[in-house]
Write a sequence for this structure.
């Protein structure tokens, strides 16, 4: 069910598994993205059924507005997940960046310099994650669960009690007014721009192929001369910067910042990435899929909100979607794995060869 | 986050494993001692500033406050030892606490043992869901439990709405569990100590429990050795769910009122406690005792901050810093110990 064309190393080579001839013929037709398109059409129809207001003109703006920042954070996370790592600190970075910007602004710095400093802090937070993962060699899951708490905690130290606002109206207007002559919110325009850049880099440049190669088999990538650690480090820095940008947009949209802004958004970001067809095991994924997942989640959220479902309850839907988006491709894999196991009992050597090859992290110096 | 990368561990089985285990074990013993020392240091320094910190009431508060997290840490430790993670513990706690609260609200004379059975049952149910998704459908536990974290919390929110169950709805005998003491030791502390003691003994002595360590060290080797990996991992999640369910009842007896937000964010506190307590996040090593001491240390630091007049807003950042510091420390330690073993491993790999 996963996008076949994006595999730099075939799954058979990476895991010792083989694809049946019938499956190989069918797979290009049954792409994950086509399923997403159908799902998107489904959610649009569902949303129009849930509320007559859904198709009202001007609603497009609000659909985009609610999801813009989350969508921006999903782009670098997609790349990180494709390399086989994860970043759970995205929402905390968003909160920290907004708090820093607002605090500096409240203490007399101009709003534009404050934004620049917030972005620089994004570089620092991303570099800290990246350094711990690549240089110290820690698992990214543990690191980013730690920095999720750490960054949120730092934001809380900076401004524990108050909500800081008072930004110039021409900036906070991005939460009310779309780009002139369109219905597109500014955050969505940023997302579109970065989606194109990231999409082109991922799918059409050597760097992009390297990112897939790292996710498919880190050791092979390393011995092919790919600078595994440097690329991973840069991706974490990119994640820090874009999450900071999301934090700035978030703060301006609401006209104020508080340390707990965006708590729990990592659920939405991870859901978008996995729903978009990026494999949690690394090595596969497309930016088109991620963009479609953004559209699906945005439509669904707006539909449920218009149907007056409280946001706490919407979490059930999003959490369920997250689990489903991993289960569905897995069911196909499980079928293959069962056949594969039967085969492996015949020829045990293939399994142990794949096993030796998979031990990448220890060997990269 | 298992499968492919773990296949390679199959090569580790053999005499070198025994030595690794030995070194790891002595390091862990040392770790528990280190946490105990850190705990004494924090208590000592704070007491030097304000001697009330070591008064009986204050120490009781410290023990009771850490008890719920320490209790949750029992289940989380077992799950992490199998190289998985359970992020849904806080939501399960919230669901069970609200269930207990509502039961008492509608049936004030509900028998006490049945209440705990109910709490246990709802936890078991959640654990079965997590375990089934992880083992039957082979979805990484990180994704499953991040999803169920929000699904369970959402169910709680749908059920509770804006409703809050206050202390006046709870029978006194139930509140006593949270506040009562035996010879100056709070019940909650005793319950946590007994729980940790039983879990420590079982993890050390029971054969199926040793399987958890084997699975965490190398799932593939464990499978080849004939250990029913899926069944054991399933059990680990069920235990974690059941423990979180029970913790929900204990939580309510301590805090006295409950709404749909009970236990939000506890998963981070529990993981911080477990990791600071020396349980390797990649599985295969660690003890419940260490995790419980980690919980006690984090809770004591939190309380000490208030006593020495540092704003309590520092607590979260310190917790995160300790978590990151602990895993970095572990890594650096293992880097200085493992090279010899590493060389042996690569020669072995070269031979294959």
């Amino acid at each position: 069910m996963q996008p076949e064309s994006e595999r730099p190393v075939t799954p058979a080579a990476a895991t010792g598994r083989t694809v049946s001839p019938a499956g190989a013929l069918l797979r290009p037709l049954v792409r994950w993205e086509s399923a997403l398109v159908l799902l998107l059409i489904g959610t649009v129809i569902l949303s129009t059924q849930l509320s007559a207001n859904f198709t009202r003109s001007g609603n497009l703006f609000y659909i985009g507005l609610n999801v813009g920042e989350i969508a921006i954070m999903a782009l670098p996370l997609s790349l990180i997940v494709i390399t086989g790592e994860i970043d759970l600190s995205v929402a905390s970075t968003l909160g920290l960046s907004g708090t820093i910007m607002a605090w500096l602004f409240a203490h007399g710095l101009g709003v534009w310099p404050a934004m620049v400093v917030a972005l620089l802090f994004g570089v620092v937070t991303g570099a800290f994650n990246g350094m711990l993962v690549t240089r110290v060699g820690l698992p990214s899951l543990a690191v980013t669960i730690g920095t999720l708490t750490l960054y949120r905690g730092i934001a809380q130290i900076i401004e524990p009690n108050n909500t800081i606002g008072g930004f110039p109206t021409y900036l906070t207007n991005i939460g009310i007014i779309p780009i002139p002559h369109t219905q597109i919110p500014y955050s969505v325009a940023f997302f579109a721009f970065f989606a194109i850049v990231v999409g082109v880099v991922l799918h059409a440049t050597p760097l992009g192929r390297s990112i897939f190669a790292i996710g498919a088999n880190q050791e092979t990538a390393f011995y092919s001369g790919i600078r595994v650690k440097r690329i991973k480090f840069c991706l974490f820095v990119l994640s820090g910067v874009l999450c900071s940008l999301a934090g700035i947009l978030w703060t301006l949209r609401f006209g104020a910042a508080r340390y707990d802004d965006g708590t729990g958004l990592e659920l939405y970001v991870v859901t978008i990435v996995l729903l978009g067809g990026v494999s949690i095991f690394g090595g596969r994924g497309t930016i088109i899929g991620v963009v479609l997942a953004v559209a699906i989640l945005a439509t669904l959220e707006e539909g449920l909100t218009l149907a007056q479902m409280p946001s706490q309850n919407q979490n059930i839907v999003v959490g369920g979607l997250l689990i489903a988006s991993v289960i569905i491709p897995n069911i196909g894999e499980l079928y293959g794995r069962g056949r594969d196991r039967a085969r492996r009992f015949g020829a045990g050597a293939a399994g142990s060869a794949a096993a030796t090859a998979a031990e990448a992290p220890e060997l990269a110096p | 986050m298992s499968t492919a990368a773990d296949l390679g561990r199959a090569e580790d089985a053999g005499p070198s494993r025994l030595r690794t285990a030995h070194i790891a074990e002595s390091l862990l013993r040392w770790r528990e001692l280190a946490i105990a020392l850190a705990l004494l240091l924090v208590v000592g320094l704070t007491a030097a500033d304000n001697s009330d910190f070591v008064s009986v009431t204050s120490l009781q508060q410290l023990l009771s406050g850490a008890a719920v997290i320490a209790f949750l840490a029992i289940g989380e430790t077992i799950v992490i030892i199998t190289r998985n993670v359970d992020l849904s513990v806080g939501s399960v706690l919230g669901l069970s606490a609200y269930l207990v609260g509502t039961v008492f609200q509608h049936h004030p004379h509900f028998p006490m043992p049945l209440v705990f059975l109910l709490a246990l049952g709802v936890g078991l149910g959640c654990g079965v869901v997590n375990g089934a998704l992880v083992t039957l459908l082979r979805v990484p536990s990180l994704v499953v439990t991040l999803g169920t974290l929000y699904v369970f919390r959402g169910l709680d929110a749908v059920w509770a709405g804006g409703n809050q169950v206050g202390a006046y709805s709870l029978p006194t005998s139930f509140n006593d569990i949270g506040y009562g003491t035996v010879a100056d030791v709070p019940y909650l502390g005793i319950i946590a100590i007994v729980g940790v003691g039983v879990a420590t003994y079982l993890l050390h002595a029971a054969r199926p429990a040793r399987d958890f360590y084997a699975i965490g060290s190398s799932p593939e080797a464990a499978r080849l050795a004939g250990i029913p990996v899926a069944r054991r991992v399933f059990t680990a999640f069920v235990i974690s769910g059941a423990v979180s369910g029970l913790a929900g009842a204990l939580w309510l007896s301590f805090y006295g009122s409950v709404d749909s937000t009970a236990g939000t964010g506890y998963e981070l506190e529990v993981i911080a406690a477990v990791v600071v307590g020396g349980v390797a996040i990649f599985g295969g090593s660690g003890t419940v005792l260490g995790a419980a001491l980690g919980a006690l240390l984090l809770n004591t630091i939190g309380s000490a901050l208030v006593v020495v007049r540092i704003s309590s807003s520092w607590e979260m950042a310190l917790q995160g810093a300790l978590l990151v510091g602990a895993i970095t420390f572990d890594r650096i330690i293992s880097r200085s110990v493992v090279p010899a073993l590493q060389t042996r491993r690569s020669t072995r790999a070269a031979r294959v």
Notes: The beta strands of chain B are 181-182, 185-186. Residues 4-350 of chain B form a domain with the ABC transporter involved in vitamin B12 uptake, BtuC fold (CATH 1.10.3470).
